[in-house]
TrEMBL record:
Pathway: Purine metabolism; IMP biosynthesis via de novo pathway; N(2)-formyl-N(1)-(5-phospho-D-ribosyl)glycinamide from N(1)-(5-phospho-D-ribosyl)glycinamide (10-formyl THF route): step 1/1. SUPFAM superfamilies: Formyltransferase. Residues 9-188 form the Formyl transferase N-terminal domain. Its EC number is 2.1.2.2. This is phosphoribosylglycinamide formyltransferase 1. GO terms for molecular function: phosphoribosylglycinamide formyltransferase activity. Transmembrane segments: none annotated. Keywords: Purine biosynthesis, Transferase. It comes from freshwater metagenome. GO terms for cellular component: cytosol.
């Protein structure tokens, strides 16, 4: 069970453009949303996601795997930086790395990720392209509680997007991202205001 502070403290991790982060930053500008982004972390320098955080006056940190002797050392440093900001929820918003044991020990059960496909179909880095190649007519995005697997965590919410005949992986992903951002904002707001309980593979809103 998670009962967040009011407003809920969010740490968001990014690897790239940060459009999901921007949607959360915009939502958090309204006090009624019930959450604030207290820090943004990344696994690489110079990405637009970090610039978005800086423009919003949010603290940032970067840990690059290449700067550590082992993946475990990177994971421990990432977890330590997140812990400094005492988050209620951690949101992986286009964070393209798997977190490890140390991170899950500290933040398991309250770390969310979004995947641009309808889990359990098409896990991994090529969700939109794999869905298109398979020929599905409907795909979408999944918000889930991060576990040690690749996009296997308990599902919090899903949103659907029709596949068009002339879609490319890119056009499909662009439309998925529109639906994904709106789901992320809606659901992170609800989790922040109401708390939630994970019971087996089911998530219930409310403390
Ligand atoms: C999102 O579709 C996310 O699900 C995927 O990468 C995209 C990140 O977009 N893993 P952005 O960096 O938030 O714009």
């Amino acid at each position: 069970m998670l009962t967040p502070s009011a407003p809920a403290r969010l740490v968001v991790l990014v690897s790239g453009a940060g459009t999901n982060l921007q949607a959360l930053l915009d939502a958090c500008a309204d006090p009624a949303y019930g959450a604030e982004i207290v820090a943004v972390g990344a696994d690489r320098d110079g990405v637009e996601g970090l610039a978005r955080a800086e423009r919003a006056g949010v603290a940032t940190f970067v840990h690059r795997i290449a700067d550590f002797d082992s993946r475990a050392a990177w994971d421990a440093a990432l977890a330590a930086s997140v812990a400094e900001h005492a988050p209620d929820l951690v949101v992986l918003a286009g964070f393209m790395k798997l977190v490890g044991a140390d991170f899950l020990e500290r933040f398991g059960g309250r770390t969310l990720n979004t995947h641009p496909a309808l889990s359990p179909a098409f896990p991994g880095m090529r969700g939109p392209a794999d869905a298109l190649e398979y020929g599905v007519k409907v795909t979408g995005a999944t918000l889930f509680v991060v576990d040690a697997g690749v996009d296997t965590g308990v599902i919090v919410a899903q949103t659907t997007v029709p596949v068009e005949d002339d879609d490319t992986a890119e056009s499909l992903h662009d439309r998925i991202k529109v639906a994904e951002r709106s789901m992320l904002v809606d659901v992170v707001g609800r989790l922040s205001r109401e708390g939630f309980t994970v019971d087996g593979r089911r998530v219930r809103f409310g403390a």
